[in-house]
Specification:
Largest sheet: 6 strands, mixed
Strand content: 5-15%
Order of helices and strands: HHHHHEEHEEHEHEEEHHHHHEEEH
Distance between the termini: 29 Å
Structural class: alpha/beta
Radius of gyration: 27 Å
Number of strands: 11
Length: 541
């Protein structure tokens, strides 16, 4: 019996080999430790369990050997279990090993051009890295580099239409548009209404990601400061627009408010100061702090100063109750932490740091590459709005909703992408006035896969992995799990999906499916998932 080799496991072969090489010495040591105990245990059971082959040991009757199919089934089951264990152990930011390979590849390419994503421990985030060999990243980069000649040609338009048209004509999808592009060549392989601008919902975050990375670079960090006003003896907590700033005891690589308070107290002690007036500065952003959808558990008020995204229930993602005034809440927590280090602080109030203020301490976020991945994987609305505003700041625009939307659109034009029909009103896609086309979404994904633009690669590596991570963790359990990587989008009457998939012939395809005026959200979501699964199974020539 011939068992066909599954493509995802073949692509994972090098990763499994490396894991086996790493684990083998530990297993050998464990075996040496356990062997004497097993020998004593066998001796206690009796001679029939003695090690065969030694003088005096009875021969154990020959047992019928399992048939080939039994070996195959057992090996396949063990392999799947091992793969699942590796995925689980790797964690949400490297569910398949691919994301690390992708990020390392981009970093290695950048290192040759003088850019370093690393930093010191004081700045949190990724460890320092220098120039290194580019690691393999087969399933995501197929067709982007030297492996392009090892795969078959791209699917044909007529064949793709025969597969996708029946699925996308599902009445549950209402008004729909779709596009499929070959990432290696940029060739449009399939389109239906692909130039029509529809409400994109959270697939807007793909545009936000590419714009932010383009404007600031993958190694950019968001910094929160504590400064001292010498004339008034005032300590001002200056918001740097980092919604991931955390007050938790275990910072997990994020910028820590606790560290900032400890360093601030030490700096004040060096000045002989033990009592201060505490203020906070939120002037980095302009305009209203309330998103057009109003107060909503899907995001906090948009302010440059908050801790743990102003969540009040201890959660780290998804909808949650939020502090009514995130900046004041963060400043109060900072004051309490100062007191723990012997500095008495007044109840905080709003202020603005002057040019005379001296910096007492700073903490910085992980690099932008990691923030973009988190934003896309978890569909993090707070990060999306923050990154859109930082894009505005980096390009000389006002850091408000209008300026952020204009900045994102301008960066896409700067990258040579057509923004015809596009209208970006926010960074998260929660605004129902947002409009994007399937053509633009696939163009963004192709641009992020351009080997000449490695700084944009987190816009691909951050996409949720079907069946494993983020907003796709509970989907594709019996479909293209681990093969489809895509950003979801869901509002009332809106279902969208945009991402990448490697088809059965090894071509990396970018796709975007947008559906508006949907009346059955579950059926619409299922229809989009079936279309993406069909792409994964498609040779289609």
């Amino acid at each position: 019996m011939v068992v066909p080799e599954l493509r995802p496991w073949r692509a994972a072969g090098p990763h499994v080999v490396r894991i086996a090489d790493a684990v083998r010495p530990r297993l050998a040591r464990a075996a040496e430790t356990v062997r004497p105990r097993l020998a004593r245990f066998a001796a206690a059971l009796g001679p029939q369990f003695a090690r065969p082959g030694r003088p005096g040991s009875p021969q154990v009757p020959r047992v019928a050997r399992p048939k080939t199919w039994q070996f195959t089934a057992t090996a396949a089951t063990a392999g799947l279990a091992l793969a699942a264990g590796v995925v689980t152990a790797a964690g949400p930011w490297d569910s398949s090993g691919q994301r690390t390979a992708e990020r390392d590849r981009a970093a290695a390419l950048e290192a040759a051009r003088g850019t370093d994503h690393g930093g010191t421990r004081a700045h949190a985030g990724t460890p320092p890295r220098g120039p290194q060999a580019v690691p393999p990243a087969v399933s995501v980069l197929t067709g982007l580099g030297g492996t392009a000649t090892t795969v078959k040609s791209a699917p044909g338009g007529k064949a793709l239409s025969a597969v996708l048209d029946p699925l996308l004509k599902n009445p549950a999808l209402g008004r729909r548009s779709a596009a499929v592009v070959d990432v290696a060549t940029g060739e449009r392989l399939y389109g239906t209404g692909s130039g029509e601008a529809l409400v994109p919902a959270s697939t807007t975050k793909i545009a936000t990601a590419v714009a932010a990375l383009s404007a600031m670079g993958a190694d950019h960090r968001l910094t929160t400061r504590a400064v001292y006003e010498p004339d008034t003896g005032e300590v001002v907590l200056v918001g740097g627009g980092d919604p991931t700033l955390t007050a938790r005891e275990e910072a997990g690589g994020l910028a820590s408010l606790r560290d900032l308070a400890e360093r601030t107290a030490a700096a004040l002690a060096g000045r002989g100061v033990r009592e201060v007036t505490l203020s906070y500065d939120t002037t980095l952003y302009k305009g209203t702090t309330i998103h057009p959808i109003g107060v909503n558990p899907n995001l906090a008020a948009v302010t440059p100063l908050m801790v743990d995204e102003a969540r009040t229930d201890g959660s780290t993602s998804g909808p949650a109750p939020r502090a009514a005034d995130p900046a004041a809440d963060a400043a109060r927590k900072f004051g309490d932490l100062l007191k723990e280090h012997g500095v008495k602080a007044t109840p905080p109030g709003p202020s603005k740091a002057t040019t005379r203020a001296s910096t007492l301490a700073t903490v910085s976020s992980p690099p932008l590459a990691a923030l973009v991945e988190r934003m896309l994987t978890n569909s993090d609305n707070d990060l999306a709005e923050a990154l859109a505003r930082h894009t505005a700041l980096a390009t000389g625009r006002s850091a408000d909703f209008a300026g952020a939307g204009a900045a994102v659109t301008a960066r896409l034009k700067h990258l040579g992408l057509s923004s015809k029909g596009a209208d970006v009103k926010d960074g998260s896609g929660l605004d129902r006035r947002d409009r994007l086309t399937a053509d633009l979404l696939t163009d963004l994904l192709v641009k992020a896969g351009d080997p000449a633009r490695p700084e944009l690669r987190p816009a691909l590596t951050g996409l949720p992995v079907a069946g494993f991570t983020g907003t796709l963790a509970g989907r594709y359990t019996d479909g293209a799990a681990g093969v489809v990587r895509a950003k979801t989008g869901t509002l009332t009457g809106v279902n969208t999906l945009a991402g990448t998939v490697v088809d059965k012939d090894g071509r990396l395809l970018a796709f975007a499916f947008l559906a508006n005026d949907t009346t059955a959200p579950t059926a619409a979501q299922s229809a989009l998932d079936k279309a993406a699964t069909a792409l994964a199974a498609c040779g289609c020539r």
